[in-house]
Each structure stands twice: as structure tokens, then as C-alpha cells.
Design goal:
alpha+beta; 6 helices
Amino acid sequence: MKTFQILITVCFALFALTPNKTNACTRVVYKGPDNTVITARSMDWKDEIPANLWVFPRGIDRDGAAGSASVKWKSKYGSVVTSSWDFTSSDGMNEKGLVGNLLWLVESTYPNFDKDKDKAISISLWLQYALDNFATVSEAVEAFSKEEFVVVSANIPGTTKFASVHLSLSDASGDNAIFEYIDGKLKIHHDPSYVTMTNSPTFDEQLAINQYWKDIPGTVMLPGTNRAADRFVRASYYIDAVPQTSNIRAALASVFSVIRNCSVPLGISSETEPNISSTRWRTVADQKNLVYFFDNVENPNVVWVEFDKLDFSEGTQVKKLSLAKNENYSGESSKEFKDSAPFKFAPIE
């Protein structure tokens, strides 16, 4: 009876700490023997969110899409990214095995932007900036900590929905960092142990909620709803519970199983929580072998790209694999990419 009372207390505490409205995405990192590191995420959205895969070579000249205040740079590393609506990179991995994931965070508050004083980049380029410039999480943490520019957000083009996200990075060594703008200030959570992230609440509160469940065996009870805090607990438990193996086939199967376990079935809706969103697609990035997998929930086949079959040399053509209309590919699909003009990142008007 005492154990049951403890569980009830935990559940009440969990729900008290969790916001009533969430957008549902999950990100988790698997670390196995022989430098096996795999990062997976789900993209959950209330409506359709068209996605395509892109190959960006080294040496692309970019600016921050923030007008005269824009930061300018040339991409140091090539990358494969998943675009959303073809105006932002929402997920991807570069040729050094650095993986970036953008997830929704309604609590985000970005810095005040003075275009006459500040250097800036549009939020649509936040993830791409990291993939273009850094090989490791530590490099990114050091650079972002200097706050040499601000990240500026605005409404998602064509909508009245303000873009409100946080950024996770993981690298081939298994290091991790979470970047959030809270009360207008950049907060960086940097530790190899930060292998799980969902949406609301802020990351420090996610860690606190997860702590409630540390003393309760996952084989006895795990929270099972679609809420972000519950998905965080399940992902955290299962990524530790699955076998730790250097057999990459088995490791990938385990990671796919974990991220699917934390996904939201297509078509799920809730009158009491209107922002609960269905999983639209998932990615899994093998950072040791440099293979990037894309799993569209409306197609039966998983698509993947092996980096050793791509040419990231400066001056080579940007390439695109069109997936936004549920085109059906299967297996290693690097030959299916077509030369394409790069998409334009959403600017700050």
C-alpha cells in the first residue's frame, strides 16, 4: 500500500510540473561499446510539415537572414539535413558526426534585437550554423557561450504561430548539449549524460521530473501518456535498458524501437490538450559510421544515406531528395538525390 501511495504522489507531482499544452517531439542518444553513438528524434506536429532531405557541401557562403545585422560565414563542413517546409533545417548531421535537432519549447523567450547594434541570425539558421561550423559539441558550446550574435525569431512564415524552439547537439564522442533561450538569455546545459530531451518544460525541469522516477523500476511502472514529461521518462529509461552493443545492426534496431515507443500515433488528438501532435517523421543518425536514416510514418520504408557515398567537396552541387509528397524510396538512397538550388532560409523581416 505504501508503494502505491508513493506512486500516486509521484504522478501528482509529475502533472503539477508539466504544462497543459505541449507540442510532442522526442530526442534521445544511444551510447554503446566501441564508440557507437546514435542519435534519434521524432518530429511531431499538429498539421502536415513537409520534409525533404538535402546534401550541403563545404564552402557555401551564408548569411544570417537578418538583414543588415546578419552574421556571415562559409560552411566549414558538409552536412545532410532534413528541412521543414524548405525554409529551415530542423534536423541533420555533418560529416564530422555532429548531430543537431530542433524541438519545440513554448517557454522560449529570445533576446531583444537592436538591428543597429546587434549581430544576428534568423532562428531558421540556428541549427545549420552549428552543422556548418563545428565538429564537436565542445566547440559549439565555446562559440555560443561568447554570444557574439543573437538568435532572432518570428512567426512561422504563412502562419500566426511564433517559432519557439530549443536546440540539441550531440557528437561522435557521445557529448551532448542543450541550448535554450529563457527570459531572453541563452542557457546552455552541457554534459555527456544529457541523452534525452523533449519539449516543455525547460530542460532543467525535465531533469527534475525524471528524477522522480529514478527509484521506480521501469519494469514496474512507467508514465504512458503523450505528454512531453512522460515521453522524457520513457525515453530516458529505455535508452539505458536496451542492450549496449557494438553490433550496429542490433544497436540501430534498439534505437528505432525506443524512438517509436516515444512517438505519437498518427491522427491522435485531444480535446483537453489541443497541442498534442502526431509523429510525422523520425530520424536516426549513426555518428560512428556516418549514416543518416529518415522514417516517414506515412511510408512503409526507411530511407538512409551513407556519407561515404556523397561528395561534400567545395564547389559541388547542392542535392535534394524530395520527400514532401510522400515519395517512396527504400534503403540507401544517395543515388536518388538530384541537383537542386538550395532552399532559402526564412528571414527576419
